[in-house]
Amino acid sequence: MAYNNLLLEERETTLVITINRPDQLNALNRQTIEEMNKALALADVNPEIRVIIITGAGEKAFVAGADIKEFAAFSVEEGRLLSRSGHKLLFDFVENMSKPVIAAVNGFALGGGLELAMSCHIRIASENAKMGLPEVSLGVIPGYGGTQRLAQLVGKGKALEMISSAAMISSSDALQWGLVNQVVPLSELPITAEELAKKIARNSPAAISSAFRAVLSGYKKGVNGFETEINEFGICFGTGDFKEGTSAFVEKRKPVFSGK
Q: Is 135 a catalytic residue?
C-alpha cells in the first residue's frame, strides 16, 4: 500500500514506520493519522510482524506536535470530534495493539508527538530529544491522551507541572522521571530500538499480548487488573505457544513460537 506521509520497512520480524514530513517537523495532520491507522492495522494482523518501531524522519524531530493550521478555526464541537477521532484512529489504537510498539524518539516530541510516544508501549529517546506538552500556550489542552498518560507515567505532580508550564524537558530528565525507558546517542537510536525488538520477537507473541492486556487493564476505570491477570494467565494454557514453550524447556532447546 502506498503512503504519502509514511515510510515503511520490514526488517525480519520488525516493522519500522517512519513519519515522513521533515519539512513540517513530522507534525501530525489528519492524513498522517489516517495513514498511521491503516499501516498499524495491517501490521497487527500480519503474522510475520512481531514488533513495530515508530520514529520520525531526520534528526530534528520525532513528531513536533499536531498540524495547528488544520484546526485553528474549529468550533467547540469540531474540537471534541477532532480529539475523539484521534484517540480512536491512533493513540488508543496504538496502546491497545496486540503487538509491542516501540517509540524511537529522535529530537522534538511535542504535543501530539509526545502523546504518540506515550501511547507506545516502550520509549527509547536520543540524547538530543526534547519533550513537552505546550498546548496551554495556545489556549488549549493536550487532547490526544496527554493529560491521562503523562500522569500515569510521571505522577500527577510532574504531569501538572509539565502541562501548566508548557516547558520542554531534556531526555535525561525524561529518563529520571520515568517518561522514557532509556536514552542513547542519536547515532545509536535505530540499532538500539531494533535490538530490543529482536529480543522481544524471540518470545511468545501470544503471551506478550496477554501480558499487555493484563497490565493495561489496571489503568482502566472499573476493571480489576488482578482478575484480568488471572484470566489471561489461564488463557495462555490453551495456546500453542504455551505447549511449544514448555516442550522446548523440557527438551532443552530454543522454542519456535507461532503466536497461536
A: yes
